[in-house]
Write a structure and sequence with these properties.
Largest sheet: none
Shape: globular
Keywords: Membrane, Transmembrane, Transmembrane helix
Structural class: mainly alpha
Organism: Nocardiopsis changdeensis
Protein name: ABC transporter permease
Order of helices and strands: HHHHHHHHHHH
Radius of gyration: 19 Å
Distance between the termini: 10 Å
Number of domains: 1
Number of strands: 0
Helix content: over 70%
InterPro entries: Nod_factor_ABC_transporter
Strand content: under 5%
Length: 275
């Protein structure tokens, strides 16, 4: 990723942000405020409390589940939809012809998701600490929560780019694929993996979902995260490493897959042109 692509991606992000802010209809969708409203309503109805072990009334479980849903919607589903739309209207084909064009597109999507998620996640966590019963830990653990959020969002963006690049336009495959991401993300938010049999728990933790949710939870509350207990040992460095490795692998694959997708969409023969 060169400096030209980073600057071009930042320029595309600023242009898109101005257009989004000028359209009230897009604000509700881009900032995922519907999830925040549903979470706030659920908190007022269920009245979460710290001594509860039930999902719907446990402050950590409820907050982390909705937080993971916001991250999936903003980072994976919305980005995959944007990639499919950009393929259909020829935007990606035009970017492929520019030096670093597809790399700039990846940078733009990462910046866009980080920006809009800062608003939606900030609003959600504000509700979590006011009406959701979540208790804040000390400031020492907050960098861990922020790091988990940023790495988690970049992972979901990379996953969205990947899905948009490999899925065919039209049909229901995107909906089914998004469901396959929503389910493990929501389960990670509930901390259900702590009750899985050991082999299944180990298999689940190869993926980054559990590490993202637990990293945010541990950083915000300053305690043992909801998905770890008993003989399990929580290690924030392992959480960061697992998420970072997955994110780096998916981002590294995003540009070549986007390039191949636009080449196939244009009907051209494979070539060695680099963008």
């Amino acid at each position: 990723m060169n400096r030209r692509a980073l600057r071009a991606g930042a320029d595309r992000f600023r242009t898109g942000a101005r257009l989004a802010l000028a359209s009230p209809d897009r604000l509700l969708l881009d900032f995922q405020l519907l999830f925040v409203l549903v979470y706030g309503t659920t908190c007022m109805v269920a009245a979460p409390r710290e001594d509860s072990d039930f999902f719907i009334t446990s402050p950590s479980s409820l907050a982390m589940t909705f937080l993971m849903l916001v991250m999936v919607q903003s980072g994976t589903f919305a980005v995959a939809q944007a990639v499919l739309a950009a393929r259909a209207d020829g935007t990606l084909l035009r970017l492929r012809l520019l030096p670093g064009g597809l790399q700039a597109y990846v940078v733009e999507k990462c910046l866009h998701v980080l920006a809009v998620s800062a608003v939606s996640i900030g609003a959600l966590l504000g509700l979590a600490f006011t009406v959701g019963g979540l208790s804040a830990g000390g400031p020492a653990a907050l960098p861990g929560a922020l790091g988990s959020l940023v790495l988690g969002l970049l992972f979901f963006v990379a996953l969205g780019l990947l899905l948009g690049a490999v899925l065919p336009a039209g049909g229901d495959l995107l909906s089914y694929s998004a469901l396959a991401v929503y389910v493990p993300a929501a389960l990670a938010g509930t901390g259900a993996a702590a009750f899985f049999p050991e082999p299944l728990r180990a298999a689940v933790r190869v993926l980054p979902f559990e590490w993202i949710a637990n990293g945010v939870d541990a950083g915000l509350t300053g305690g043992t995260p909801l998905g770890f207990g008993g003989a399990d040992t929580w290690n924030p460095l392992v959480a960061a490493a697992v998420t970072a490795v997955w994110t780096a692998l998916l981002l590294a694959a995003a540009v070549p897959l986007l390039r191949r997708m636009t080449r196939r969409a244009s009907g051209s023969a494979p070539d060695r042109t680099r963008t």
